Structures are given as C-alpha cells and as structure tokens.
Amino acid sequence: MGSLVNKRILLGVTGGIAAYKSADLVRRLRDAGAEVRVVMTASATEFITPLTLQAVSGHPVYRHLLDTDAEAGMGHIELARWADAVLVAPASANFLARLAQGRADDLLSTVCLATEAPVAVAPAMNQQMWNNPATQSNLTAIRKNAVRIFGPAEGSQACGEVGPGRMLEPVELVTLTSELFATGELDGLTVLVTAGPTWEAIDPVRGLTNRSSGKMGYAVAEAAAEAGAKVILISGPTALADPARVRTIRVTSAQEMHDTVHQHVAEANIFIGVAAVADYRPARAAERKLKKTETKLTLELERTPDILASVAALRPAPFTVGFAAETENLEQHARTKLENKKLDLVAANRVGADLGFAADENSLLLVEHEGVTELPVQPKAKLARALIRHVAARVRAKNAASVHVLRRS
Ligand code: CTP
C-alpha cells in the first residue's frame, strides 16, 4: 500500500449533495499526512461553502480560472504542477461528461487537463443518471485516458432511490488515493541507497563534513519503497527520521559507509549513491583532543574509498546510479563521472547558494550512455519518484533484454 505522507493532493469538489462529505475527506487526507488544496466548481459552492473547505484544508480555496489575483498566486498551471495526485470527489455526471470531452472551461477541468499527476474521480449521482448510457460511455472514455474511477457504492440515495451512485465514504477514498502511489514498478527488487554527508574525524570532537541534509537520498529511498522495492538506506549523520518501510542503517565515516554497503550489495538489484561522501579524510585521527599549541596546524589528508566506483566494478554489478552536484557544466561533468566510474546513470543537480543541499526543491539531469533526460524543478519527493520511475523502466528493459539473450543462447 502507498502512503500519503508528504503527498500533495488536489481535491476537486463538484456540485452534488455528497459535497457535504468533502470537509471530512479533507480532514482525513490531512490526518494521513497529505497536504491538501481544494478547487471547487461554481455549483459545488451551492452545497458547501468555500470557507468551510478553506478552514479544514488550511489554504484558500481555488474557484476561478480567469481570476487575475488567483493566477498571480497559484494559477491553473501551478496547481496542475503542484499536485502529486488529483482526486475529484464528489464527481457529478456533468463533470464526468466534461472530463470525457477534455473541456477546459473552468478551473477544475483545466487543472485535470494540464496535470501530469494521476487523476481519480469518485462519482456521486442519482442511480438513473449513473446507469444512463451517456454516463457509462463517458466513463469508458475517461477510463481510456487513464483516469481512475473510485466507486460508486450502492445503497439508498439522497433522492430516496436505491441503487449505484453513492459516493464512497471518505475513509475508503483515502485508502484508494494512497494506493495511487503504490506503483509496483520495483516489485520484487532490492534497492540499496546511500544518503547524507559523512563525518571524517580529526580528533574525538572535531571532524570534516559537508552541508548535505540527506533529504534527497531519503526521498529516493522512500520512493523506491513505495514502488514496491525492499530498500536498505545507509545514511551518514542527518537530522532526519528513518523513512517508513525502509531499513535504515546509520554510519559515520566514508570507510564505514563503504564497508556497510559491501555487506549488503550482493542482494541489491539497484544501487543509488546519493550520499555526499567525503573525498578525503585526515590520514591519522588524533586519539585525544588536539590542543592549540602551535600557530599553524597542517592536516595531512588521504583519499577515502570511492563507494560508487567500487560497486560499479563488481561482477555482477547492480544497476548503478551516481549523483553529481555541480555548480557549472552539469552535463559534461556528469558524463565524465558516468564514464570514469562505469555507471549506468548519473543524476546531476546544480548546487549553489539557495539550490541543492538544504533546499526542498531541485531539478535533475539524468545522464546516460544513450542520452539525457531533464527532470524540471520540483519538490525533492516528487523528483525522487520521477527518478525511480525512470530507473525502474531502465532496469525492466535491461532485464527483458537479458532474458531475450538467454533464450537465444
Ligand atoms: N561517491 C562515493 N564515494 C566517494 C565519493 C563519492 O560513493 N568516496 C559517490 C557519491 O555518492 C555520488 C558520486 O560518487 O553518487 C559523486 O561523485 P564524485 O566524483 O565524488 O563527486 P565530486 O566529489 O563532486 O567530484 P569531483 O570533485 O571529482 O568533481
């Protein structure tokens, strides 16, 4: 099952009596860890007030497509990009018809058309309207466009009739929404991830380290777990909590990270080195705290083992992904790393004053032998999911090719 922790859910509310349940739905989505923003159609506001949904979501409710104030803040394209998933609940018969046609004549239909995120609808309507061939053919059309349909349930309806057309209960919708993220793309595979900085001791109280927060590596580990993999995260010192459903092993130095990786790498199908491993360490760590007796102090440094290159050199090696943090010439530096370390893929990101380590957003350039793919600026959790989707497709293609070769030989 997927998780809603840190997921951005855009809830669309259309006009139907079940809209009274939307406030409860927002609360339950937030309780499950999601951030929720609400878009209402004009007729939804006849059933429940925007103020109610603003209060429970903690954000202003979006209603108008052609509103200069709204578009100057978070307009339809920003909302479409912001969402990790779009859930329309309740979805009226009219809304389903408009979705089937790909209309873009109000904010909600436009966001549904403009988003790359998964879209799900929870229909709610009178049973005659549900059973009408027009509605059924609209459902066939939207299903074909990969829109997921949650429900409806059968039972007694607000109009006094009995039959299919009741919106699923909020608790069921929360479960189904979380399952949108359980992609199964890495089912049966094991992924080993390194994250965070390392700490190279100078003496018992001092050391060499860097500003890596570990956020990207943890997000990659979480995304891999969500895609169905068994995940082992080997983390340097960070302030982050262990991610759910991930076996996290804490280490301190580059040497310790190297040794721990090699204890576990034999079972890994994929290795992703996100850690900002120190390239050098003091040649000798003092056993006692150094005293400032001299005016100058020279530290002799030696190279640390290159964990990533050592994994790529294994036979058989897992599908090996490196990270490259660069201030300039992104693609060129990444390609040099790809070739020198004999990797399958390098994910390069730009670092600078307000980009990279501590920031919550970033972009990635995926550099491979066969080409380059750009993942635009987005939250690290979303970026990590896009990276995992890309790696999963590559690993599947590689496995399919090797099965083909085995069959031929
Ligand atoms: N890496 C590693 N072990 C090291 C050093 C780096 O596994 N001892 C991994 C990192 O986890 C990352 C990639 O290698 O995936 C970064 O490559 P690296 O060449 O170390 O990057 P920089 O130090 O930034 O490279 P350079 O200074 O040579 O440009």
Structural summary, described in words:
The protein is of the alpha/beta class. The protein has 2 domains: 172 residues, Rossmann fold, CATH 3.40.50.1950; 213 residues, CoaB-like (Rossmann fold, 3-Layer(aba) Sandwich). It is 35% helix and 24% strand. It has an 8-stranded mixed sheet with strand order 12-11-8-13-16-17-18-19, sandwiched between helices. It has a 5-stranded parallel sheet with strand order 2-1-3-4-5, sandwiched between helices. A two-stranded antiparallel sheet has the order 6-7. Helix 1 runs parallel beside helix 2, helix 1 packs across helix 9 and helix 10 crosses helix 14. The longest helix has 29 residues. The radius of gyration is 25 Å and the shape is elongated. The two termini are 39 Å apart. Bound molecules: cytidine-5'-triphosphate (CTP). The site of cytidine-5'-triphosphate (CTP) has 15 residues, from helix 12 and strand 16.
Produce a short descriptive summary:
This protein has 409 residues and is of the alpha/beta class. It has 14 helices and 19 strands.
What attributes does this structure have?
35% helix, alpha/beta, single chain, Rossmann fold, binds cytidine-5'-triphosphate, 409 residues, 5-stranded parallel sheet
